[in-house]
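Incident log, support desk, overnight shift.

02:14 A customer reports that sequence design results differ from what the structure should imply. Their input is reproduced verbatim below. On-call engineer (initials T.W.) acknowledged and began investigating.
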């Protein structure tokens, strides 16, 4: 079973413009499957095999001579030394694009090697787990019931392809992630503490993040929690949303908000084991906000664009869930699981004296319904299945 990925067009376009492509993303997001599906005729090697990783690290030039071009190289983070040899191979025929297709599960940890070795030679894109749009187009469903099902299951492709129950998949996923990626990146003396950190962080998805509060609850230092958070970020597990400044208002909140990028993993960590438990959860509003953030991020990164995305909040209670600067103006987005339409005029009322109307391009309300309409005062009501509806339309 193959679910078409929105990022495929971006991948193919970059392959025509750059000698190498680096496809990053969290574990099991479908990086390898995507490359094999889009380029089935290409030779493939994975550095997940220790013998190959060792050879690639020690004798990268000899290693590369074993394979024809173009070449798919999987899990480059296990032998980043190979990047300098890839540069040498590219420079032998600098004008030929699409020579190497590389994957890596630890985005930022690869950037130093990529910047040093392949600057100007490589295109970098991030593949997330399945988006609502991808799920909608595959199953042909976009109802509120289907949204609930997607939130509960999440977007990891294997869950959809193999018909696994979420807890079956995530039991193994967490164990593998802890035992391999985390232990490789940092020395964690007590995995139990890190596991506790994951679950406490899940409780905060869609909320302001206080590292010191987390550290106190777990019983570790603030520095330790900061390093753990950076691991989740470079692994594309969580997303830090920073506040919007640009001289608007006073006494602005400077603390970022934290979001998990896949709701299936989020709900697993929260201990939510059924769709009924999801709907009864006091965290439903934050979970839905997490869904909306994830779809916006996927929309941009599937196009190869780094999201220019923020939130607004100040000490006086003025706030907006998401702020997107575009063309010198702002798109303001609020997410509400349910919202009475007869109260829509009250939306964004708290910021009317803070953000000038001529600074606002569009106001958007995202709800759990897949309805879409444009109301007075430039207010758009939309579901979160199709981000293009509220990010592109006038």
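02:41 Re-run completed on a clean worker. Output:
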């Amino acid at each position: 079973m193959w679910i078409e990925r929105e990022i495929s067009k971006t991948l193919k376009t970059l392959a025509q413009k750059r000698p190498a492509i680096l496809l990053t993303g969290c574990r099991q997001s479908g990086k390898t499957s995507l490359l094999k599906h889009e380029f089935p005729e290409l030779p493939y090697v994975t550095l997940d095999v220790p013998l190959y990783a060792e050879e690639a690290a020690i004798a990268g030039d000899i290693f590369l001579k074993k394979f024809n071009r173009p070449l798919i190289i999987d899990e480059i983070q296990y032998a980043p030394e190979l990047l300098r040899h890839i540069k040498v191979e590219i420079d032998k025929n600098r004008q030929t694009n699409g020579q190497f297709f590389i994957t890596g599960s630890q985005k930022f940890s690869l950037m130093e090697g990529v910047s040093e070795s392949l600057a100007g030679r490589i295109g970098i894109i991030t593949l997330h787990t399945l988006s609502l749009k991808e799920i909608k187009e595959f199953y042909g469903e976009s109802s509120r019931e289907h949204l609930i099902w997607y939130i509960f299951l999440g977007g990891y492709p294997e869950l959809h392809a193999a018909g696994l129950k979420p807890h079956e998949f995530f039991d193994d996923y967490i164990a593998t992630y802890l035992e391999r990626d985390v232990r490789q990146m940092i020395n964690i003396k007590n995995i139990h503490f890190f596991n506790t950190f994951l679950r406490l962080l899940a409780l905060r998805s869609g909320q302001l993040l206080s590292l010191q509060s987390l550290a106190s609850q777990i019983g570790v230092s603030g520095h330790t929690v900061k390093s753990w958070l950076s691991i989740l970020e470079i692994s594309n597990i969580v997303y830090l949303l920073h506040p919007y400044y640009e001289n608007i208002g006073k006494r602005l909140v400077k603390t970022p908000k934290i979001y998990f990028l896949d709701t299936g993993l989020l709900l697993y960590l929260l201990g939510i084991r059924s769709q009924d438990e999801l709907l009864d959860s006091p965290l439903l509003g934050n979970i839905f906000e997490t869904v909306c953030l994830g779809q916006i991020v996927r929309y941009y990164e599937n196009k190869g664009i780094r999201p220019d995305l923020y939130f607004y909040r100040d000490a006086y209670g003025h706030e907006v869930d998401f702020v997107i600067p575009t063309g010198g103006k702002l798109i303001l987005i609020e997410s509400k699981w349910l919202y009475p339409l007869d109260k829509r005029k009250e939306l964004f009322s708290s910021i009317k004296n803070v953000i000038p109307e001529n600074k606002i391009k569009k106001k958007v309300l995202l709800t759990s319904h897949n309805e879409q309409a444009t109301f007075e005062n430039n207010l758009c009501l939309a579901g979160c299945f199709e981000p293009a509806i509220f990010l592109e339309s006038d």
